[in-house]
Design a protein that fits this description.
Blueprint lengths: L2 H23 L15 E7 L11 H12 L8 E2 L8 H4 L11 E2 L5 E3 L2 H4 L23 E3 L24 E6 L11 E5 L7 E3 L3 E2 L10 H27 L1
Parallel strand pairs: 1-3
Antiparallel strand pairs: 1-8, 1-9, 2-8, 3-4, 5-6, 6-7
Helix pairs in contact: 1-5
């Protein structure tokens, strides 16, 4: 009689753990692209699933915004690919010609740009793949605030721009599903009080060993529940042996 609650607990825990295991096994985002070896370095880029206006002239407001979404995929120091009147996107993201370049991938494991110069050369050469996906791996709608020209510097309408002749100044938007120059600069005349998405780029990441999805909290819970099931089974077998 006393074994029944334990048996039910074990079955419920096993069913829940199995559900979480398969959910993780088919996770929608990739944080370690295929083909990389231990020690290889790379960066990730994504589109925020949430939206924000472009009225602030403080770049850290946008960095904080994208970091909150990017950390849901993998913990990193995420930066907005955006320009304000005082900070260019190429500087904010550490992707200048003077920086040590690494390849950049989206959250489906697709190569976006092989180098930093490739990232900022779409006026003449397309990205390999579009950024296109949000922090969960879902395809994003793709209208982005950037305030930036294809070369990485502020456009004529950076984020936080002011115009004494307009109630709301204009800012540059881009298209997250494009591989050409429009990925960074589509039009420059959108009122900055509108709410659109942002690009985020990670700090430099290093492959620790093998290619794998970074575990989400659900996988940790699943492993813990599987451990509970294992312990419950062992204890039950011990009681059966002791009473035999």
């Amino acid at each position: 009689m006393n074994q029944l609650p334990h048996a039910r607990l074990a079955k419920v825990a096993f069913a829940f753990a199995t559900m979480l295991f398969y959910q993780e096994a088919y996770a929608d985002f990739v944080t370690t692209p295929a083909g990389l070896d231990p020690g290889d370095q790379y960066r990730l880029v994504f589109i925020t699933s949430g939206t924000k206006t472009a009225q602030s002239a403080t770049i850290e407001d946008y960095n904080t915004f994208v970091d909150g979404f990017g950390d849901n995929a993998i913990a990193s120091d995420w930066k907005a690919i955006a320009s304000t009147p005082t900070v260019d996107a190429i500087d904010n993201t550490g992707t200048t010609a003077q920086a040590t370049s690494v390849p950049i991938y989206n959250l489906q494991g697709q190569l976006v740009a092989s180098t930093y110069s490739h990232l900022w050369s779409t006026a003449s050469a397309d990205l390999t793949f579009a950024v296109k996906y949000d922090e969960t791996g879902e395809r994003a709608s793709g209208i982005m605030w950037t305030g930036t020209e294809p070369g990485g510097t502020a456009s004529i309408a950076p984020l936080g721009n002011t115009d004494p002749h307009l109630e709301y100044a204009n800012a540059t938007i881009a298209l997250g599903y494009e591989k050409n120059a429009q990925w960074m600069q589509f039009v420059d005349n959108f009122a900055n009080n509108g709410s659109f998405q942002f690009y985020g780029i990670s700090s430099v990441l290093t492959v620790a060993g093998g290619n794998a999805l970074v575990p989400e909290p659900s996988s940790v819970i699943a492993m813990g529940l599987l451990g509970v099931v294992g312990i419950a089974g062992i204890r039950r077998r011990r009681r059966e042996v002791a009473t035999a």
